[in-house]
Amino acid sequence: MVDRSEIDEENAMLTLEPDGFHDTQGRLMYFRGINIAANAKYPPFIPFEDTRWWDLLASWGFNMVRLTLFWEAIEPQPGIYDRSYLDKVEQIVDRASLLGMYVLLDMHQDLYSRWLHGDGAPAWAFPADVNPDNNDSFGGRFWGCAYTLSRDVRTCFTNFFESGQLREHYSNALAEVAKRVKDKPYVLGYDIMNEPSCGNIPNHDGHFENNFLKTLYEETIIAVRQVHPEAVGFVEPHILDMYTSKLTPFNVDRLVYAPHLYNPVSNTLWFDPLPEDVSFSILLSIHQEKAKHLGMPLFVGEFGSPWRLQPFYARDIAVNDAMEELEKNFVSNAYWDYSVKDVDMWNEEDYSLIDKIGNPRGLGVNVRPYVRNLRGLPLHQSFDRRTSIYSLSFKSEPGVPPTLIYVPEKLQYPDGFRIFVSDGYGEYHRDSGVILYYPSFDCHHNITIEPN
C-alpha cells in the first residue's frame, strides 16, 4: 500500500459549486482526463498494474482518470464481494493520488453484461427468461444496435430497473468501493452508471429517466454517502437520448451532469462527410443547456474517435475539433481511452492512445496546453495544433493565488516557448510543466504561449 504521507492531501481537497470544482484556494479546477480503460472490460477487470503506464499519463499532463469498475467484478455472487478486486481498485486510486491525479470511479456497463457481448452485470443478475450463455445479443462493430434490436438486452434492463432488489445490490456494490476510498482526497466522485438504457420502458415523455433512472441515481448516491458523506455523484442521460434527454432536476445535491460527446455517425460508420467541428459545437451546446436546466456543472465523461476512421488522418481532425470546443467552453472532460494491451479486443473498438505494440500515438492532438486552476471569470481559451499557439483570457483582481496553466513542453515546444502577458508576469516551473500567472490589475487578462 502507498505511504499516505507522500500524498498531498491538504491541497487535494475540492469543493463543488454550481460552476464546477474549486480548489482549496478558491480557484476553478479544470480536468484534462482520460478513461482507463476498454481493455478492463474482461477479467481480471484491471486496466494495468505496471507503474510505467501511470508515469506516461502524468508526463502528458493528465490530471484525472475515469476508472472503469464493473458490478460483476465487485459482486461476483449475491452479497459476496471480491476483496482482491477491491484491493486493486484501492491501489489504483493510491497510485493516481501519488501523481496528483484525481479519480472518477465509473460503474461501467455496455449492453448490461459481458454475457450479452458487453460488460457490467454478473450473470446472477439476469431475469429468469434470459440465458446468459444463449441469448440474442450480439457484438462486433455494430454492437450498439443491440440496445434496441436484442430482446434479451432490453429484457435485462427492464428487469433491473423494475427490481428494487437488484437496484439495492447495485447500490451496495458501489458503496463497497466507497468504503475503500472514502478517506482518499483524490477521489473526484462516483459515476453511477455508464450509458444506461431503458430496456422496454418508454422514455418519449421522460418516463424512464425521471421515474426509473433518477431513482437509481438517488438511491445509489444516498447509499454511497452512508459511508462517504461528501461523495459527489456523476449522472448520465439515457444512452438512446444522449442529446434529447428529458431528465428534470434531482432531489439530492452535489451532482455533476456527465454525458458523453460522440459523433454518432462517424463513430459507427468510420466515415462522416459532414464537418466534425460543426457537429461537436452543436452537440456540446445541447449538453450545456441540459446541465444548466438541471442546475449542475457539466463534465464530458467520454469523447473520442476510432483509429479506423477514414481517411487515415480523420481521427486526429475529429479529436482536435472536439477538444477545441471543450477548451473554448472551459468544459472538463475525459478522453476515451487508454488501453495498454488488447486495444481493440472489445467489439473491434480502438480509441486508445497506445497502439497494439505498446507505442503512444495521437499525442500531438491529445496532449496540449490547458488551464488547470483559474482564479477569476473564464472568457476565452484556444489552442491551434498547427502553430502550437495557446491563448487564455479571463477576468480577475490582481494578486494571489496565481492561475496555473499546464504546458507540454517536450511534445508541443521542443525548441522552447515564449510567454506573452497583458499585465503582471508568468513563472514557468519546468519540473511540473506549469506556468504560474500573477496579474497586476483588476481587468481582463490575456496570456499567449508561442513556440520559439
Distance between the termini: 44 Å
Unreliable spans: none
Helix content: 25-40%
Oligomeric state of the chains in view? single chain
Instruction: Please list the strands of the largest sheet in the order they lie side by side.
Output: 9-8-7-6-5-4-13-11
The counted number of beta strands is: 21
Strand residue percentage: 15-25%
Question: What is the fourth-level CATH superfamily of the largest domain?
Answer: Glycosidases
Major β-sheet profile = 8 strands, parallel
Would you give the CATH topology of the largest domain? TIM Barrel
Counted by DSSP, the helix tally is 13
Q: Which structural category do the helix and sheet elements fall into?
A: alpha/beta
Radius of gyration over all CA atoms, rounded: 21 Å
Describe it.
It is a single chain. This protein has 452 residues and is of the alpha/beta class. The protein folds into 2 domains: 4-367, TIM Barrel (Alpha-Beta Barrel); 389-451. It contains 13 helices and 21 strands. It has helices spanning 9-12, 51-59, 71-74, 83-98, 146-149, 151-162, 164-181, 207-225, 264-269, 276-294, 314-328, 363-366, 409-412; strands at 15-17, 20-22, 28-29, 32-36, 64-69, 102-107, 187-191, 233-235, 255-257, 260-261, 299-300, 302-303, 332-335, 370-374, 377-384, 389-396, 403-406, 417-421, 425-429, 434-438, 443-451. Strands 9-8-7-6-5-4-13-11 form an 8-stranded parallel β-sheet. Strand 7 (187-191), helix 8 and strand 8 (233-235) form a beta-alpha-beta unit. Helix 7 (164-181) crosses helix 8 (207-225). It starts with 8 loop residues before the first helix and ends with a strand.
